[in-house]
Amino acid sequence: MMSLKIPDRFMNDELAEEMFGNVLFVRDQIAQHHKWFENSLPMIASENLISPLAREMLISDFCDRYAEGLPGARYYQGNIYVDRVELKAIELAKKLFKCEHADVRPTSGTVANLAVLFAFTKPGDQITVPNVSDGAHISSAKFGAVGVRGVTGIPYPFNVKDMCIDVDGAAKVIRETKPKLALFGMSVFLFPAPLKELRPVLDEVGAIVWYDAAHVLGLIAGGKFQDPLREGAHVMTASTHKTLPGPQHGIILANPKDEKMKNKLTYAVFPGVTSNHHLHAMASLCISLAEHIVFGKEYADQIVRNAKALGQAMHELGFDVLCAHKGFTESHTLAVDVSKIGGGTVCVEAMEKANIIANKNLLPWDDVNAALNPSGIRLGVQELTRIGMRESEMKEVAYLLKKICIDKKDPEEVKKEVIALKSGFKTIKYCFAEDVEAYKHYKLL
Ligand code: DSN
């Protein structure tokens, strides 16, 4: 146990006392945050809980070290065990995603995206991208990674009824643009991208096909979403903490066309967009990959079942869940039009008061300037699934959402029901240490 006190030689030192007060303040905020989330239903589609064994790695000595370069070819000494872990992570990533090349050094999904842009484009190029207002990640916007690289993203037309890229329109854009790089993947990722359908035209123009799998990485690994590397993608980037329930980190997975392409990717990660690569997170990712190889199929299966069940229950209770005609979703995510019941901001703020955490979201027909009060909310079920919730709990969640958003009941009253529901779900499933109480594990010294 760490002794929580000011060392004697700094006793009665005003600055030390003030700063120690700040330390205690931060610890208290974290403790309160943990208590809040212990009693909440987190439904942000881009988050998850890492397993107890993966979490342990984050406070290991790896968090204090440097390892630039590749295993066996480092710029620093002291990497004997780091190299072994990194090689193991690469091996497991290749096994899980059935690919020839894996790089576990990007420190986030956006950093992985910057690496791909750095590898395969130069400023002034045009690439094709999904549109942010249709649910793409900010990486593909001029104010995101694409803009940082100085390339122009030409958007694919989008079918708003079916919430997916319009194939004929996209084929036309690809033929006209002849992009070096064609990006697919969304942050509101309800249905697979039309890779198979567009493959002939992508081949025709010789584009490198890049798939941002951040949201659906765990579903892909679990065999419950499209398999981009088999459907025509050459390179897949992702963050590793959404449906793949790992640490906050990034990854690049690829079947490069040739050695030159692989080398470009490797060089782009280091020295391109990383120096050190957060070794503690890399080790944590290695454990998450091992666990997902065992538990990923059943986890991915339950996530998709839960998302569909929540969509159906909300639809039956009067919510305008998008794409009822397509079964609402094939992923972990639902998009709901709440414009007739107060709008996205009103709904998510009331939900937060009731301890249900989600985000407001632009829907494709919203004006981008409406980002602060859009028509939609986005819901993800991957974290509720991770703590063991199934279809029957999804019905309960739908009722709670109705009480808050449609019936406009006092959120403080609904909160009591949320806390009661959550009280039965205190451990993390689909991992080796399933018996560890999740929120005990978070307790600090
Ligand atoms: N901003 C994240 C999301 O919520 O989709 C992705 O980085």
State the name of the first-level CATH class of the largest domain.
Answer: Alpha Beta
Percent in strands: 5-15%
Bound ligands, each once: D-serine
Major β-sheet strand ordering: 4-12-11-10-9
Domains counted in the coordinates: how many?
2
Any idea what the CATH architecture of the largest domain is?
3-Layer(aba) Sandwich
Q: Largest sheet, if any?
A: 5 strands, mixed
The number of helices is 16
| Strand tally | 17
Helix content: 40-55%
CATH domain fold name of the largest domain: Aspartate Aminotransferase, domain 2
Low-confidence stretches: none
Structural class: alpha/beta
Gyration radius over CA: 23 Å
Report on the structure:
The chain has 445 residues and is α/β, with parallel strands linked by helices. 44% of the residues lie in helices and 14% in strands. The protein has a 5-stranded mixed sheet with strand order 4-12-11-10-9. Strands 13-14-17-16 form a 4-stranded antiparallel sheet. Strands 1-15 form a two-stranded parallel sheet. The chain binds D-serine. D-serine binds next to loops. D-serine is lined by residues 46, 109, 137, 187.
Task: Give a short synopsis of this structure.
The chain is an alpha/beta fold and 445 residues long.
